[in-house]
Specification:
alpha/beta; GMP Synthetase, Chain A, domain 3; 2 domains; 4-stranded mixed β-sheet; 7 strands; binds zinc ion
Length: 162
């Protein structure tokens, strides 16, 4: 199997890995930053989306499992990069999927729009949402509560890979 086909297979496998807490793939969340392949050993570079979300370790094990199922891949390592993720990295598909469950993703400049009606008239009601990585908010436009993904940078250091 030529390298390009293997890489395409890995991309497809990653597109099927969903965040454990969100109905959206890690690719649509903008978490996948790089794939390297050398003699059947794949290295997938990911950026964590939230501070303090335990889901990071679940994602890592799901990624390893999915990628090692790709033919011609015998091994997969995951490297976590040091932050750099922002709401702007979420794809349109990802935004639509998240809006469908009432979850807004702030834009790169921090702007939050209502996931239901697109209104700017939104405010935080509590820093604590249903998960540690979410903030509760309320839209004045359509009078609907929703949640916002927190987009703080992680404090994790990247693993050193020789
Ligand atoms: Zn609204």
């Amino acid at each position: 199997m030529p390298g390009d086909d293997v890489r395409a297979g890995i991309r497809r496998a990653l597109a099927a890995v969903e965040d454990p807490e969100l109905p959206v793939s890690i690719v649509d969340l903008g978490m996948v930053r790089g794939i390297t392949l050398s003699a059947g050993a794949a290295v997938v570079e990911l950026v964590p989306t939230f501070l303090a979300c335990p889901a990071q370790w679940l994602v890592e094990s799901d990624v390893k499992q999915a990628v090692t199922r790709v033919p011609a891949v015998s091994q997969c390592d995951v490297v976590w990069l040091d932050g750099g993720w922002s709401g702007a990295d979420v794809t349109e598909t990802g935004r639509r999927a998240l809006a469908g469950v009432g979850l807004a993703v702030p834009a790169a400049d921090g702007t939050v729009l209502c996931p239901f009606c697109g209104s700017h008239e939104v405010g935080e009601t509590s820093p604590f949402g249903s998960a540690v990585c979410r903030t509760a908010a309320y839209c004045q436009g359509c009078r609907t509560p929703f949640e916002v993904l927190k987009v703080k940078r992680t404090l994790l250091r990247p693993a050193q890979v020789p």
